[in-house]
Amino acid sequence: MIQLLHLTKQYPSPAGPVAALSDVTLTIPDGAIFGVIGLSGAGKSTLVRCINLLEKPTSGQVLIDGEDLMKVKKRRLLEVRRSIGMIFQNFNLLEQRTVEDNVRFPLEIARFDKEKRGERVRELLRLVGLSEKAKAYPSQLSGGQKQRVAIARALATDPKYLLCDEATSALDPNTTASILALLKEINASLGVTIVVITHEMRVVESICTDVAVIGDSRIAETGKVTEVFSDPKSEIARELIIPELIRSVKSGGGNKLRLIFDGTVSDMPIISALAMDVGAAVNILYADTKNIDGMPFGHMVITLPAEEEKAAAVKRYLSEKHVQYKEEI
Amino acid sequence: MSRLFQQLGVQGFMLGVWETVYLTFLSTFVAYLIGLPLGILLCVTDKGGIRPVVWLNKLVGFVVNILRSIPFIILMVALIPVSRAIVGTSIGNAAMIFMLIVAAAPYIARMVESSVKEVDSGVIEAARSMGAGTFEIVWKVLLPEAKPSLIVGAVISTVTVLGYSAMAGTIAAGGLGSIAVTQARPSNAQDVIWLCVALMVVIVQIVQEAGMVLAKKTDKRIRSEKSKNKKIKSKGDIS
């Protein structure tokens, strides 16, 4: 388990220290695919680099399986880093080494049994589907292939954790999807806990189990993806997850209801049902459903009828049909 | 044909070529033994390097700068007593090699430093994330990744040292420069001077071409035919 306790990271600047992280506390449960989402400059990259201490936090604790990395000796830190794989936006492959030698690199660093290195490299390239590119150089590969090599390399020493720093941000949508599928497969088959840093909603939607929303160097909100995405509470999370909804709520007048679809009622034609059963004609200001983890989730913003009675009837009807709703002002 | 030209004959010129090549390559080689580690040290200990040691970086940088700011001909004069103390003589090829090393090592250190600094910081970060220590990063990342650039740097350094070696005549060391300046110039043997120049040009061309071919061959970054041609062109421009 990865635990970050009261992490603070400040960078010196001519105008005094600038905070990249302020009192960040986060628990990343084993087996999770944990997304950290935020706008650029929010502190995401600093946060992920604090996990393996590529960046040393100014204060706080970094607990990896209970061991505080802030207190361990340099030699031990290097050992722990071998149990935490990492991949990057720009892949960061060794340009002068072949694909197989790139994957071999962490094995050399970890003094992995020389005899077994070749076997291990072949196994990893098979896992990421690049066996036939073993002798190629990175410059001969596409972006998606480079990231696959980077994944194979990060997994070489059989790490318990895999950190992904904007790993799909440089890739096109199709390639992104295939890389995400690979990460999901790795999580499922190898049980590797994955931390995904991203500014892309669709990345979190498609693979993450848990999510932390980071804004302005602080954790704004954290929880299961299904919970946070169906009902984001913090301002920054709402802006990230349902930006159009926020705009639509702010624009229209009158009383509004936000209907929350949690995967059970999404297919029901609720608006026409309202019109027929309650006799209330409601106006739809916004509607969007997303597929998260194979279940439909979504929001819809409607204006309530002006008459108190009708409005109450609408709410009653929604409750009966188990549709969650919130009043929006 | 001048009398000196006849006196020297094929053998005399061959000896000149040999002495130039030997002075240049031996001193460049030894200078690399000093300059390469110094260059790595300058890069690694720099602020923002993989192991910052600011005072050491400043100190080495200062010494390198001082040595580099002295024109070679003056450095030679200044080094006469030092050479006598260390090499045992202040004239001849041995003394010349010593002086060339002193002049070339700091130059090479800067060349190496700039080559190694070109290595993508992301790749270094990736190596750190895998638990690589400072030595492993230098040995397995910085040097191999900078290799093509280091080879180009070595070519430039060698040609520079070749230029310095022409001043060998001033302390009675040998080579083409010595023939041209101390023998041909006083007797105004123009044909000897021009042949020395031509031979120097040939040596430089060979070093340059061989070095570039080697650098291109070791570089695995660009492989496709189209970009390959582009690469040769741009490299030719730089040097």
Short description:
The complex is a heterodimer of chains A (329) and B (239). Helices cover 37% and strands 28% of the residues of chain A.
What does this structure look like?
The complex is a heterodimer of chains A (329) and B (239). Chain A has 329 residues and is α/β, with parallel strands linked by helices. Chain A has two domains: 2-239, P-loop containing nucleotide triphosphate hydrolases (Rossmann fold); 242-328, Alpha-Beta Plaits, CATH 3.30.70.260. Chain A has helices at 44-51, 74-81, 99-109, 114-127, 143-155, 173-190, 201-207, 225-230, 235-241, 243-251, 270-277, 308-320, and strands at residues 2-11, 18-28, 33-37, 59-64, 67-68, 84-88, 161-165, 193-198, 210-215, 218-224, 256-261, 283-292, 295-303, 324-328. In chain A, the strands form three sheets. Chain A has a six-stranded mixed sheet with strand order 6-7-8-3-9-10, sandwiched between helices. In chain A, strands 2-1-4-5 form a four-stranded antiparallel sheet, with helices on one face. In chain A, strands 12-13-11-14 form a four-stranded antiparallel sheet, with helices on both faces. Chain B has a single domain (3-238), classed as MetI-like fold (Orthogonal Bundle). The model of chain B is unreliable at 224-239 (pLDDT under 50). Helices cover 80% and strands 0% of the residues of chain B. Chain B has helices spanning 3-44, 54-69, 72-86, 92-117, 121-129, 134-165, 176-184, 190-218, 225-238. Chain B starts with a helix and ends with a helix. Chain B is elongated. Chain B has 239 residues and is an all-alpha fold. Chains A and B meet through α2, β6 and α3 of A and α5 and α6 of B.
